[in-house]
């Protein structure tokens, strides 16, 4: 387990934690609470919220001074194909509802460079860029146009850190699974231009490409994950797919989500509710935590535990895994730290009412945003932080959501 400790230490340093005091380090092992500060019912029509994204701090330039805007924005994609945008400050304020999508949303992300541009990817093979300053008008479209006129259904997408390249992962279609690429600058504002596809890869995955993650600072490095069990790393500066594929990692499972832990290591979660940590040059994961490890309480049934997302940030002391469990008493939610060779609760989350589908963290305010099957957006903060700041306005509440939808295909691993 020495690799876990070293990897987490490196991540903390890269996130600015090199000056952490001994007292701060001791607090990492302490158990705390996250308290609900805001709650908003997005839909009363039993629509799930499938995913959430947000904007990090926005530095605004004015004559003679610079300041950081106190508010941030979040976007929530619903199961009825709509997307709702909120401004988060002292309360949750609904800005706009985007209703142009006609098929299920497979991903939603803000532009890395602008809090006014929101990208949505849909299953019909289209990625749209919407300008929130123009009432959510679609200002650019990125579509795969083939000779027969059939588009490839998307399953995932991501945007490079410099906001210049978009990658879209497709479902397994026509015997292949594709990673498609578009240049944001080439498209411009010509909505009807359907020839903006740069190209694609189709030999590296054999099944649905469920997740894509550009490197946080290297705009030409991309990680992909698939239901075929592989995580692949690509150097997009290379002239061919064979040369671009620099690393292929076999998780022996079906990859649900992945992300960058450090500059050269990855985390991934699988459809069987397993967390794996990888060094890119290794042949196997250096740490694996299965569904049984999620049952950290004596009352937990592993079959009722589920993964939400791994957060590679040290805003709560060190990276953590957000997990949930369904019991007769309600829907539990907690943050788990990696402590030696096991998972331990670092924060209980008080007052959750739904099965959570996705989460996102605002780094500046240390706010955790969760969304789920009850159609609710929740904003959580540490209890000790709340004691030092004025309480935020609590919004409308509703009852528990529906059961977790396990629609993913069974894989014979």
Automatic annotation (TrEMBL):
Coiled coil: none annotated. SMART domains: WD40 (SM00320). It comes from the Eukaryota. Keywords: Repeat, WD repeat. PROSITE patterns: WD_REPEATS_2. WD repeats lie at residues 202-244. InterPro entries: WD40/YVTN_repeat-like_dom_sf, WD40_repeat_dom_sf, WD40_rpt, WDR89. Pfam families: WD40. Gene3D superfamilies: YVTN repeat-like/Quinoprotein amine dehydrogenase. PANTHER family: WD REPEAT-CONTAINING PROTEIN 89. This is WD repeat-containing protein 89. It comes from Camponotus floridanus (Florida carpenter ant). The lineage of its organism: Eukaryota, Metazoa, Ecdysozoa, Arthropoda, Hexapoda.
């Amino acid at each position: 387990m020495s690799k876990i400790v070293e990897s987490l230490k490196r991540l903390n340093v890269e996130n600015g934690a090199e000056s952490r005091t001994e007292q701060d380090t001791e607090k990492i092992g302490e158990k705390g609470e996250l308290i609900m500060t805001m709650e908003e019912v997005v839909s009363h029509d039993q629509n799930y919220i499938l995913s959430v994204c947000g904007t990090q701090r926005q530095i605004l330039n004015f004559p003679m001074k610079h300041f950081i805007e106190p508010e941030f924005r979040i976007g929530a994609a619903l199961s009825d194909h709509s997307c709702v945008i909120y401004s988060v400050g002292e309360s949750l304020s609904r800005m706009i509802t985007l209703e142009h999508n006609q098929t299920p949303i497979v991903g939603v992300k803000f532009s890395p460079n602008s809090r006014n541009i929101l990208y949505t990817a849909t299953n019909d093979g289209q990625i749209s860029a919407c300008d929130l300053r123009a009432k959510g008008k679609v200002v650019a479209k990125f579509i795969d146009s083939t000779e027969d006129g059939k588009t490839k259904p998307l399953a995932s997408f991501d945007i490079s850190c410099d906001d210049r390249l978009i990658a879209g992962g497709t479902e397994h279609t026509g015997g292949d699974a594709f990673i498609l690429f578009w240049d944001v600058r080439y498209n411009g504002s010509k909505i009807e231009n359907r020839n903006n596809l740069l190209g694609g890869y189709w030999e590296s995955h054999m099944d649905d490409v469920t997740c894509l993650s550009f490197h946080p600072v290297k705009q030409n490095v991309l990680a992909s994950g698939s239901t075929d069990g592989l995580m692949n790393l690509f150097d997009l500066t290379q002239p061919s797919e064979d040369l671009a594929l620099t690393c292929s990692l076999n998780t022996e499972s079906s990859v649900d989500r992945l992300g960058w832990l450090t500059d050269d290591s990855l985390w991934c979660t699988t459809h069987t509710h397993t967390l794996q940590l990888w060094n890119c040059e290794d042949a196997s994961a250096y740490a694996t935590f299965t569904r049984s490890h999620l049952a950290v309480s004596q009352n937990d049934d592993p079959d009722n535990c589920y993964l939400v997302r791994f957060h590679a940030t040290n805003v709560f002391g060190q990276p953590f895994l957000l997990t949930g469990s369904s019991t007769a008493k309600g829907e539990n939610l907690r943050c788990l730290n990696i402590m030696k060779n096991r998972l331990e609760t670092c924060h209980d989350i008080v007052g959750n009412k739904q099965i959570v589908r996705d989460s996102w963290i605002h780094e500046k305010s240390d706010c955790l945003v969760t969304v789920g099957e009850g159609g609710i957006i929740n904003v959580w903060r540490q209890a000790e932080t709340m004691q030092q700041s004025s309480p935020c306005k609590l919004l409308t509440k509703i009852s528990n959501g529906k059961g977790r939808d396990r629609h993913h295909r069974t894989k014979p691993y």
